[in-house]
Design brief:
Belongs to the leucine-binding protein family. It comes from Sphaerotilus natans subsp. natans DSM 6575. InterPro entries: BCAA_transport (IPR051010), Leu-bd (IPR028081), Peripla_BP_I (IPR028082). The chain is globular, with a radius of gyration of 23 Å. The protein has two domains: about 25-160 and about 310-375, Response regulator (Rossmann fold), CATH 3.40.50; about 160-295 and about 380-415, Rossmann fold, CATH 3.40.50.2300. The protein is of the alpha/beta class. Helix 3 (about 85-100) packs parallel to helix 4 and helix 11 (about 320-340) packs across helix 12 (about 345-350). The chain is about 40% helix and about 20% strand.
């Protein structure tokens, strides 16, 4: 009798262990590789992205993770520090694909993004059993969804021409404006912004004089005073720039120090130290464009901001961008529709997908255009104002200054033609 009980007990234990093993396998995380500069001159921008993506992943996991035929699985963010180097980023992509990571994410540098797209195209053609997707949250050179478009690349940020067009829509309404200075980072994205900026200004405000234009090395200038001095001496009434990260913050600080009193029309002037750097002198003078900002004025946005700040209470961590939240939500939905972690199946589920804001309180609605894999979404142009003034409930980074909407563009207004000839998969 004891022998039989022992056998039954052992059989039960073995069955339980097998069940636990199966459960452990079913709960194995779905790894998402973040290839980004987490050290070096743009480390603050890289870490801000990691916080956004990490928080988005936490929310998906709090709902039980992604539902797959074998059971729900959590998402896991794998941090991979490229140090801002293209060569390092390519080496990390090889490491990720060698480990069969199904999704890589990157955004801070269009030059890095272009190299990753080309490398991933070659890898996916050579090793179809270990294909991966590239989700792009910030590399906005239009070429990535035009001449260099790829079935494996999906961009969730508005590209440079979309952002620039929205800014110029506001700039051209300033009838007192007569001169603009163009300055940018000397790589593909910065060069494109200057070229396209000249074209758009000539088309929409031919009376505006280009007071000067300048390209500077990326992430290597510690003192922008010589550039700010030239801007002030040019007589420009405004600066138009696509600069990001410390290259923007240091430029604006130098402009303040030399007494430049013109406006700044920026892609990214609403974060990473810019409002705190300018303080009161930036009120009404810093203009930024983004897919969303904390003061758009609806309850869902207010709830999102408050929840984010509960999770990241330090003012220096206050960097919340909706597109990164949307990207993770859409990926989770695409994985569930595909019913698989196969990159080809996920790509097909993501291409053409609409997002209705599910998981974000109705925020972030848009569509991943199938023809070029450019996400079509709204854009807001906003201007820096003192927190507590009309329309500015939330400040930025504890600075006491936030942004108020001056122009809203619906998705159909932000969409632009493309020249992509998407390869089949």
């Amino acid at each position: 009798m004891n022998f039989r009980l022992n056998v039954v007990a052992r059989a039960g234990l073995a069955g339980a262990l097998l069940g636990l093993c199966a459960l452990a396998q079913a709960a194995e995380p779905v790894r998402l590789a973040l290839i980004e500069g987490l050290s070096g001159p743009f480390a603050n921008a890289g870490e801000a992205v990691a916080r956004n993506l990490g928080w988005a992943i936490e929310r998906v996991n709090a709902r039980g993770g992604v539902k797959l035929p074998g059971g729900a699985r959590p998402l896991e963010l794998v941090r991979m520090d490229s140090k801002g180097s293209t060569e390092e980023a390519l080496a990390l992509l090889r490491a990720a694909t060698d480990q069969a990571v199904p999704v890589v994410m990157q955004g801070n540098s269009s030059a890095v993004a272009a190299a990753l797209v080309e490398a991933l195209n070659r890898h996916n053609a050579r090793e179809p059993q270990r294909r991966a997707l590239f989700l792009n949250y910030a590399a906005v050179d239009p070429v990535l969804t035009n001449e260099k478009c790829s079935p494996w690349h999906f961009r969730f940020d508005a590209h440079a021409d979309m952002r620039l067009s929205a800014l110029v829509d506001v700039l051209q309404q300033d009838s007192a404006l007569r001169s603009v200075y163009l300055i940018g980072q000397d790589y593909s994205f910065g060069q494109h912004v200057l070229k396209k900026g000249r074209e758009m200004l000539a088309a929409r405000r031919p009376d505006i004089r280009i007071a000067g234009e300048e390209l500077h090395p990326v992430g290597r200038i510690k003192d922008f005073l010589p550039y700010a001095t030239k801007i002030r001496a040019s007589g420009a009434q405004a600066v138009l720039t696509g600069n990001w990260g410390n290259d923007l913050t240091l430029l604006i600080k130098a402009a303040r120090d030399v007494g430049f009193e013109g406006k700044f029309y920026t892609f990214y002037g609403n974060a990473l130290g810019v409002p705190a750097t300018l303080g009161e002198s930036g009120v009404g003078r810093v203009v930024a464009v983004a897919e969303w900002h904390p003061n758009v004025g609806d309850k869902a946005s207010e709830a999102l901001v408050r929840t984010f700040r509960q999770r990241f209470p330090k003012p220096q961590d206050d960097y919340l961008h909706l597109r990164m939240q949307v990207m993770v939500e859409m990926l989770a939905q695409a994985i569930e529709r595909a019913g698989s972690l196969d990159a080809t199946a996920i790509a097909k589920a993501l291409s053409g997908a609409r997002f209705d804001g599910r998981g974000l309180g109705g925020l972030g609605a848009g569509q991943m255009r199938a023809a070029d894999h450019q996400f079509i979404q709204p854009l807001y142009v906003s201007t820096m104002q003192k927190a507590g003034s009309e329309g500015v409930r939330f400040d930025v980074e504890g600075s006491g200054y936030g942004f108020r909407t001056v122009r809203y563009l619906a998705p159909e207004q932000t969409a632009q033609p493309h020249s992509c000839k998407m390869a089949p998969i």
